[in-house]
Task: inverse folding
C-alpha cells in the first residue's frame, strides 16, 4: 500500500462510520436541518417576504413556502448577481454555478460558504465508502481523471461564476492535486474535441487508476485513446485502471460498450450530483441503489409525480415516503434554494436505509396521447431488448410522430445510434415495442386500440448525436442527450443524421 492509500484508510473508516450514523438517523437529521434552514432564512429577504419568522412546523413551512422553479426564484437570484446581501441566504454566495435548461436561458445557482462542503465532501464520501467496503485503496496512489468544465471563473460583483464542475476544481485538497488530471491549462480549453485529444496525450503515459465523468463523454475518451495509441483496449494502456465514477445519466444503456472498451473488470461507482446540491451516492459496491445524502445542508421534499402539476400537490418529508413510488425531488438548502424543484424524478428502493434510484426528468416525457412515458421506461425497454438481441447502443432519444408524412396512424419514433446493430432489425423493433407495452400500461392500451402503431426506429449515422450536440453548442462535459421529448424540435434536427438520408 502506498503512502496516500495508507493516509486515506483511517480517514475512510471515520467517514464510513459517519455515513452509517446518517443513514440510521436520516428522518431526524432532516428535521434538524429544516429548523436550521428556517432560523437562517428568517434573516433573508426571501424569509421576510414569506413570513419565515412565523413558521414553527413543517405544515407551517408548506403554507409559507411554495414549490418553485428557477423562474419563481429568478428575481432573488438577480438581486444576488447584482451584489445584494441577504437575498436568499445570509451574506453573499461564494460562487454562482452556471447551468442551462430554463426557458430564460442560463441559470445561476448559488453556492454559499455553508453549502460548498455538500458538493466536495459528498464526492469524497462516495469514494471513501467505496474504498472501505471494497477494501481497495490502491487508486489513491495513481492518477485520476475527472472530466469537468473549465475551472477558469468569471467574477461579477465579488462573486465567482462558472460551471459547477469547474468550481469544484478549486476545492480539491492539496494532497489530491498531484493525482488529478487534466492539468489546469488543458482543462481550460473550451473546444471539446481539442480538449479531449489534449487529455489523451497528457494521460497516456500516466499510471491512471480512476476516471470520473458522464458515460457518453468517457466513451469518447476511451475511443480517442484507442485511436491514438493503436491499442485494442483501455486495459492495455492503463493496466491498473480500477474505478469508474459516473452519474448524471442512466448508465445501463452504455455499460456493455464501456466495459468492452476497457477490456478488464473495474468497479463502477454511481453518484447523483447536481448544481443545486449533491443528492445521493452509491456507498457500497454490492448495493446499486444510491444512499440519500440526508445530512448535508439540504432538506428534501417529495411530490408524487402524478400530482406534481396539480395546484395543491402533497408535499412529503423523508419520513413519509414509500418504496416503489415515483417522486419529484424538491430541495430546500443552505445555498438559499427554497421549495425548489430540481426537475428530477426518483424512486425509493428502501427506507431502511433510504436508498433510491433516479428515474428521469419531470419535463422529459412523452404524453402526446396521454401515455406519459418516462425516461425510466424507455431506458428499461432498450436495455431488455439489446440484451435479448445481442445489440449495442451508443445513444438514443425518442419523440412522438403525431402526423406521419407517410400517412397512417401516429407512432413513437426512436432515433438510435448503434455501436453494434441487431442482426434482425424487424424482430428488434417488435421486441422493443412489446417491451414498451410491458413498461407502460397506457402505451399498451393505445397500441392495442390501434391509436398508436408500432414504434419506428430510425438508425443513425456514426457520431450522429455527437455531431448534433456540437451543432447546438453542447458538446462536452456535463451536457446530456435528453432521452425523451414531447415535441419534434430535436427529432427534426436529428433527421439529417439518419442513415437513410
Result:
Amino acid at each position: 500500500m502506498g503512502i496516500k492509500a495508507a493516509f486515506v484508510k483511517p480517514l475512510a473508516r471515520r467517514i464510513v462510520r459517519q455515513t452509517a450514523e446518517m443513514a440510521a438517523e436520516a428522518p431526524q437529521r432532516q428535521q434538524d436541518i429544516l429548523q436550521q434552514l428556517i432560523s437562517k432564512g428568517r434573516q433573508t429577504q426571501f424569509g421576510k417576504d414569506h413570513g419565515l419568522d412565523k413558521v414553527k412546523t413543517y405544515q407551517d413551512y408548506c403554507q409559507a413556502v411554495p414549490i418553485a422553479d428557477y423562474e419563481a426564484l429568478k428575481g432573488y437570484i438577480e438581486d444576488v448577481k447584482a451584489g445584494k446581501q441577504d437575498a436568499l441566504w445570509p451574506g453573499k454566495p461564494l460562487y454562482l454555478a452556471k447551468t442551462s435548461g430554463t426557458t430564460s436561458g442560463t441559470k445561476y445557482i448559488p453556492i454559499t460558504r455553508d453549502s460548498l462542503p455538500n458538493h466536495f465532501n459528498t464526492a469524497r464520501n462516495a469514494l471513501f465508502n467505496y474504498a472501505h467496503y471494497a477494501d481497495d485503496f490502491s487508486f489513491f496512489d495513481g492518477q485520476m481523471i475527472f472530466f469537468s468544465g473549465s475551472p477558469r471563473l468569471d467574477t461579477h460583483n465579488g462573486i465567482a461564476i462558472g460551471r459547477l464542475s469547474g468550481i469544484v476544481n478549486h476545492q480539491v485538497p492539496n494532497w489530491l492535486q498531484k493525482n488529478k488530471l487534466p492539468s489546469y491549462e488543458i482543462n481550460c480549453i473550451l473546444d471539446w474535441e481539442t480538449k479531449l485529444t489534449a487529455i489523451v496525450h497528457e494521460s497516456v503515459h500516466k499510471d491512471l487508476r480512476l476516471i470520473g465523468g458522464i458515460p457518453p463523454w468517457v466513451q469518447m475518451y476511451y475511443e480517442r485513446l484507442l485511436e491514438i495509441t493503436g491499442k485494442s483496449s483501455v486495459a492495455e494502456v492503463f493496466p491498473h485502471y480500477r474505478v469508474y465514477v459516473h452519474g448524471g445519466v442512466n448508465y445501463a444503456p452504455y455499460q456493455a460498450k464501456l466495459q468492452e472498451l476497457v477490456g478488464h473488470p473495474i468497479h463502477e461507482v454511481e453518484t447523483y450530483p447536481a448544481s443545486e446540491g449533491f443528492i445521493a451516492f452509491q456507498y457500497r459496491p454490492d448495493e446499486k441503489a444510491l444512499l440519500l445524502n440526508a445530512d448535508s445542508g439540504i432538506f428534501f421534499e417529495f411530490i408524487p409525480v402524478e400530482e406534481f402539476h396539480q395546484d395543491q400537490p402533497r408535499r412529503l418529508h423523508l419520513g413519509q415516503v414509500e418504496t416503489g413510488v415515483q417522486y419529484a425531488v424538491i430541495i430546500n438548502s443552505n445555498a438559499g434554494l427554497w421549495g425548489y424543484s430540481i426537475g428530477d424524478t426518483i424512486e425509493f428502493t428502501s427506507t431502511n436505509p433510504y436508498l433510491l434510484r433516479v428515474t428521469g426528468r419531470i419535463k422529459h416525457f412523452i404524453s402526446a396521447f396521454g401515455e406519459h412515458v418516462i425516461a425510466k421506461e424507455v431506458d428499461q425497454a432498450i436495455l431488455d431488448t439489446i440484451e435479448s438481441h445481442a445489440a449495442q447502443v451508443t445513444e438514443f432519444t425518442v419523440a412522438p410522430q403525431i402526423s406521419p408524412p407517410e400517412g397512417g396512424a401516429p407512432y413513437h419514433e426512436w432515433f438510435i445510434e448503434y455501436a453494434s446493430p441487431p442482426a434482425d432489425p424487424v424482430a428488434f423493433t417488435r421486441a422493443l415495442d412489446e417491451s414498451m407495452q410491458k413498461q407502460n400500461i397506457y402505451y399498451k392500451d393505445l397500441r392495442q386500440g390501434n391509436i398508436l402503431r408500432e414504434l419506428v426506429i430510425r438508425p443513425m449515422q456514426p457520431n450522429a448525436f455527437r455531431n448534433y450536440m456540437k451543432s447546438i453548442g453542447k458538446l462536452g462535459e456535463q451536457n446530456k442527450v435528453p432521452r425523451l421529448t414531447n415535441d419534434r424540435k430535436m427529432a427534426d434536427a436529428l433527421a439529417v443524421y439518419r442513415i437513410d438520408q
In short: Residues 117-274 form a domain with the Rossmann fold fold (CATH 3.40.50).
